Amino acid sequence: MKDQIINALSYFQQAYIDRDSDKIDEFMDRLFIKDKLIIFGTGINEVCINDEQSKELFTSDWKYWGDYRLNFDSLHIKEYPSFSYAEIEGTLTYKFFDDDKTYDKFVGYVRENMDLGSHYDFMDVMHYLSHLLHPRDQKERAFELPIVTSFIFVENDNDIKINRIIFSMMNLSLYKDIRFEDVIPYTRAFARDVELMKSLGCQSSYLLSNLTFDEDNIVRNHQGVIFKKNIGEGIQSCFLEDDELTINEESLVNYTSNEHHFITCYATLRRQTTQEELENKLKKHILTILDSDIKSKDKLFKVRRDIALTYKEIALGLNFTWPIRIHGIIQSKDEKWVIKHINIVDPFNVILEDK
């Protein structure tokens, strides 16, 4: 099974390198069972539940995405009675250019924000321009973003096929990309994803919010950090003590065997803070940057970038609500369900150089 999975992932990788939309049907026939594939993209409003939606996502990736590469040395495969789970790290590399076309694009973005002209819009412009206007040595530059991709493989006519794909960007920023506030229309897109997941009609005898970790467990957080939780702790323990996690149980989608389920669902995370707390956090972060071994010019970029980002967030208020995506493996053990492996993901929104 492992060799078959590696061969399938190699084919998947090559398709993203070739970017040949004329071969999309061949790609779909080779890797997927007709109308059985479900895909979760890196952001919200990127849930695909049928082949036409999946084709649109793949061909869009091949046309617009950066250079997507899998690191096969990081490949983790776990076999279960009726499916296999594969998780692999990689990079998404974008090229950035110091040219008139780039500056014209950002001028257009500033103009769009001026049509609204709120306090937040001004701070958003400052954050974007902090990335653009930093002096760099090269006219053309590459920037790598870390990504983790999860797959469910199932047997089909003496072959294996992919049943689920989950693309997860790792968040190395001070703040999450997507925040539910009136000034940003993310809530409608998030609600659409939840309704799509509910439409799949998955049934479960458990509430994910009530489950606890098994003794043998793995957690990967939104920054890609892998750790283990204590037996008996719940998912809430993966967050700050005062954070309020609400799992949308109706959005849960599972692929089931007798004892193991692969689950995916959405949640919201709420946090109340003060401007003083955020500024103290920023101060500590800046001091860490200034004490680092990078060039002074790069230190100043990171300081300006993170000051702009912090006050952009403050402009939206001090009550934070973020969407969270959770996926992983749970197991029925000793007449109860326990968590074996979960990934906690921040939906991704925007690509900026040195984000």
Structure, described:
The chain is an alpha+beta fold and 355 residues long. It has a single domain, classed as Nuclear Transport Factor 2, Chain: A (Roll), CATH 3.10.450. Helices cover 33% and strands 32% of the residues. It is built from eight helices and 14 strands. It has helices spanning 2-18, 24-31, 51-64, 100-114, 119-132, 186-199, 275-290, 296-315, and strands at 38-40, 47-48, 67-70, 76-79, 84-97, 140-156, 159-169, 212-220, 226-227, 244-247, 253-256, 260-272, 319-333, 336-345. Strands 1, 2, 3, 4, 5, 6 and 7 form a seven-stranded mixed beta sheet that branches. A hairpin with a 5-residue loop joins strand 8 and strand 9 (226-227). The longest helix has 20 residues, at 296-315. It is globular. The two termini are 38 Å apart. The mean pLDDT is 93.
